[in-house]
Amino acid sequence: MNTIAAIDSAEKASEKAVQSTLLSPRFYTTDFAAMDRLDISAVRAEWDQMMSEYEGDNNHDHFQRDAQFAEEVAQRFSQVSPAMRQEFLDFLISSLTSEFSGCILYNEIARNIDNPDIKQLMRYMARDESRHASFLNQSLKDFGLGIDLGNLKRTKAYTYFKPKYIFYATYLSEKIGYARYISIYRQLEKNPDKRFHPIFRWFERWCNDEFRHGESFALIMRAQPHLLKGGNVYWIRFFLLAVYATMYVRDHSRPMLHEEMGLDSSVYDFEVFQITNDITKQVFPVSLDLDNPAFRAGLKQLFQVQTQMDLAKKRGGLVGLLQRGFWAASGAVTFARLYFLPVNHHALPDQVRMVPAW
User: Fold this and answer.
1) Is 293 left (phi over 0), alpha (psi -120 to 50) or beta?
2) What digits encode the pLDDT tens for the residues 136-177?
3) Cys-Cys crosslink for 268: which of 113, 132, 189, 263, Cβ 3.0 to 4.6 Å?
4) Within its chain, how far is the Cα of 256 from the centroid?
């Protein structure tokens, strides 16, 4: 069921970006003093190598629209259905908000700490995320829906996360972002007739930025080994499930986007989950059992819960409010059941750094 509200003006695009829901990207702040105390000496050699890669900035000239961009928009995107157009605009806005969220967080950390290693990293990552957000915003401007990023920074609510939650959540966000983008790029590389918008031609090198950002957080966590053992493993399990479940529900709420690319949302999501599982074994001692039928059934149930929540919200009034409460409780119970499913355990590899090989 498509529940995306019509996005037909810059004001509505901005309203969409500023929303704070369970499925929308959030803006974060954290404990800057704790970030300042981070010590990466245990991974110094790999850290310095990565900093050299950031300094080389192999994507410095990548996010420039070529002469074919406008022509492809006019020829290909003009042929999609109005409903499909709305799903794609929703995708652009949520992607922009996510990228800009990283830009803000990394800039704020860099501005509020003195630790030279972390400060340098945050500046590099903020640079990359700024490019991504601006590139997405330019595509929104093609439709007269450009978002005032300065206003978005001032008006969107911020969520406080402890540094370790930032590490778990952002590491996963960057890695699953890589898996999502590379899977789409490979699909459209094989089926260029399904590439309905030119922005997808940029996804390969774009997702390599995401991959490197994830590597940065992997090194930080491996340099603080207490973050990967004991009670913190329960937090790792929580963030793995939260990120996967959010992606599943969000993707199934806009199925036409994948259908237009020749993808099935469920198949695509589990391919992305598998890539992310393979990657996160570099730093997380547990991974979700994607083959467990109860896991797949639970994700389907979460999507049904969200669908009913949306219907109850649209209904409004006392009945709608009571229905929303019922379905919120049902969703919490389903999430809890998923959380307590058995997980896979594995030893961490000696070599921390990975290369994008998918």
Assistant:
1) alpha
2) 999 999 999 999 999 999 999 999 999 999 999 999 999 999
3) 263
4) 19
CA separation (Å) from 271 to 111, 116, 255, 283, 358?
38, 38, 16, 20, 11
Average pLDDT, the chain: 93
For 137, 213, 232, 313, the CA distances from 144, given in Å and listed in that order, are 10, 31, 45, 29
Ramachandran region, residue 263 (left: φ > 0; alpha: ψ -120 to 50; beta: rest): beta
Burial class (CB in 10 A: 0-12, 13-18, 19+), 35: buried
Q: Which residues pair with 206 in a beta bridge?
A: none
CA neighbor of 177 nearest in space, from 239, 243, 114, 234:
243
| pLDDT, greater one: 20 or 43 | 43
Q: Are 269 and 300 in contact (CB under 8 A)?
A: no
Residues 6 or more apart in contact with residue 59 via CB below 8 angstroms: 128, 131, 205, 206, 208, 209
Tell me the per-residue pLDDT of 246-305, one tens digit each, with 9 for 90 and over.
Answer: 999 999 998 999 999 999 999 999 999 999 999 999 999 999 999 999 999 999 999 999
